[in-house]
Amino acid sequence: MSKSSEFTIIKLDFDLSLKYFFEYFTIEEFLKVKRQQAEALGLHVISIKWEKSRSHFHVLMKVKGYIPTKDLFKYQFLLGDDNSRCNFNFFRLNVFGERARYLNVLFTRKQKYKKLGDIFKRVKK
């Protein structure tokens, strides 16, 4: 993503079972709250959608402007992204710096790396 991008995608992973989610919430009210949270953080939300993963769900939020990697990971955490994923993102930020954003994929789309060396080979330089 170039720093002149007109938007950034914030990816959020929620591991609450859909069975329980739909018992207590509607997707519309959940997305409304996520939009309000993002706007309270000063983000301009262009669009927001959800998609089902195997047994959970993801939220993809398109926000105006380029967000540096450090801030992107901070916003993901503050907006309720999966804690394990956030820990991994901050670890990658410490190792790769700004390039860590290229490894910021949702788990169902993440390639399986057999050893840490494989990650270094795949990171854009």
Commentary on this structure:
The chain has 125 residues and is an alpha+beta fold. Helix content is 42%, strand content 19%. The protein has helices at residues 18-24, 27-40, 69-78, 83-96, 116-122; strands at residues 7-14, 45-52, 57-64. A three-stranded antiparallel sheet has the order 1-3-2. A hairpin with a 4-residue loop joins strand 2 and strand 3 (57-64). The protein is globular, with a radius of gyration of 15 Å. Residues 107-117 have low confidence and may be disordered.
Write the layout of secondary structure elements.
Layout (H helix, E strand, L loop, with lengths): L6 E8 L3 H7 L2 H14 L4 E8 L4 E8 L4 H10 L4 H14 L19 H7 L3
Antiparallel strand pairs: 1-3, 2-3
Helix pairs in contact: 3-4
Distance between the termini: 13 Å
Strand fraction equals 15-25%
**What is the gyration radius calculated from CA atoms?**
15 Å
Shape: globular
Strand order of the largest sheet: 1-3-2
Number of helical regions: 5
For the largest beta-sheet, the strand count, sense and barrel status come to:
3 strands, antiparallel
Based on helices, strands and strand pairing, what is the structural class? alpha+beta
Number of strands: 3
Q: Give the helix proportion (percent range).
A: 40-55%
Q: How much is the average pLDDT?
A: 81
Low-confidence stretches: 107-117
Order of helices and strands: EHHEEHHH
